[in-house]
Amino acid sequence: MMNFIQKNKGSEQVENHNVSKLKCFRFGFPISKHSLQSGQALVTSVILFLIISTTISVGVVNPVLQHVTGTEDFANTRGAIFVSQSVNEDALYRLKNNKKFTSPSTLTLNGFSATATSSSSAGGFDINSSGTGYNLTRNIKTHLTSGTGASFNYGVQSGTGGVILENTSSIDGNLFSGGTVVGSGSNLIKGDVISAGSGGLVQGVHATSSVYAHTINNSTIDKDAYYNTISGSTVSGASHPNSADQATTTLPISDSMITSMEADATAGGVISSPCPYKIDSDTVLGPKKINCDLEISGNDFTLTLNGTVWVVGNVTIKNGPTIKVGSSVGGKSVAIIADNPSNRSTKSVISSSNSATFAGSGTAGSFVLLISQNSSAENGGNVKAITVANSVSGALLVYAGHGEILMQNSVAIKEVTAYRIRLQNSAKLIYETGLANILFTSGPSGGYTFDKWREVQ
Known about the structure:
Layout: H1 2-24, H2 33-96, E1 105-109, E2 112-121, E3 124-133, E4 136-146, E5 148-150, E6 156-165, E7 170-172, E8 175-177, E9 181-183, E10 188-189, E11 193-195, E12 201-203, E13 206-207, E14 211-212, E15 215-217, E16 220-221, E17 225-226, E18 229-231, E19 234-235, E20 239-240, H3 255-267, E21 270-271, E22 277-279, E23 283-285, E24 288-290, E25 294-297, E26 302-305, E27 309-311, E28 315-318, E29 322-325, E30 334-338, E31 350-352, E32 357-359, E33 368-372, E34 384-389, E35 393-394, E36 396-408, E37 412-413, E38 415-424, E39 428-430, E40 438-440, E41 448-456
Parallel strand pairs: 6-8, 6-9, 6-38, 7-10, 7-39, 8-11, 9-12, 11-14, 12-15, 13-16, 14-17, 15-18, 16-19, 17-20, 21-24, 22-25, 23-26, 24-27, 25-28, 26-29, 27-30, 28-31, 29-32, 30-33, 31-34, 32-35, 33-36, 34-36, 36-38, 37-39
Antiparallel strand pairs: 1-2, 2-3, 3-4, 4-41, 5-40
């Protein structure tokens, strides 16, 4: 029995050995257990390598693709803003130059399209444009201010009647004269002085900057002097003998512009009584035509101007009133015009005195403008077109293209232009930057001036 059991155990061991041997000969060659484990490790390594390589490739390719996409989007959005800007500028050009503009206006270019529309807004027009392409949109908004402009490039500008400075009068700004510039007393001009033409003469002035004139006499010049003839003068800078005479120029507001302003005032309504027409309490006025003299007199009240006021007669302003531009007018200026077409020799004059105060609308570039069409000085007479005296101050410009303006006694205003200008006593003019492009509430063709640009959502 024992022999039988042992015999069977031996047979089982032989059988197990044969099975193991058979497994090792799979695929026709012997494979050891160690070799099988090595192969599994190699497969695992290859799989890990592929995973790592794929991860690295994705990490490198994705940023490149994102950069390419970002570059393409940037180019597309630039294209969208380009067509938006183009159609906006076309509309702006047409409106500014009184050319035909149809709203909406469309532009198509290289797969991009843009549309511009115009709409009325406070003080002018808004132009809105939207450019699109490849699902991208860029929007632009510009604003045009309506009105007629005039350029006041000098603190004082005269025609051939010239400029006269007396006593301690002063000008804080440049002076341009189409005639002579003659000073006396302790006058002072803080800027350049130009006396244009072959008859140009600067005499008896003290200028803190340079002087340009055919002839310079008895003057103190802190910088350079440009002249043909000079005598009795002190020049701290360089002297330029035999200099060319400065060219003459026209005054900034033409008669046709004033006529157009008067037409706009008339369109706002006509006041014919009572005469003279008196304002002595808080009043809102303009645009309006007044068919007689106008008197603005009294303390502690304000006259608010919303448009041009044409007075067919004289204008008297006295005893401390405040005259200002209405806030709704924005950055434009409003004129009070004294003009009686049937009498410009002794009538059509303006007098402002005794602490009258002038103010703009509260927006930069807004002023009150006094205009007189009196022509006495131009025709050899001695009637003053505009007199500004006794503590008058503020955002005031005065203009008399054919007459004489007299400033005296502690006056401080912004700009003076006339055929002839006379400053006396302590009259002081302080020129304000920005007067080179003044807009009015009315004028020929109702032109527009570009003033704002921005990109919007």
